[in-house]
Amino acid sequence: MKRMYDQLGPEFALITKLIEKRLQRKITQASLAKKVGTKQSAISRFEAGSYHPTLSFLHKVANALDADLKVRVV
Length: 74
Fold this sequence. Notes:
This protein has 74 residues and is mainly alpha-helical. Helix content is 68%, strand content 0%. It contains four helices and no strands.
């Protein structure tokens, strides 16, 4: 169980950070969806952790939030 949690930890950390950025900028899910070119329901599913996004989607969300997305492989 701990191994599964550890594997999902980075995913939840990313989701949490992007939600924080959205709230700091006072952007609604609907407004973010419009900037990203998707539906509000897709943003909601992503923020709930029930949607596994592509890197392209993550870049679009980060750009819409004026944030940088950095991916590393160690």
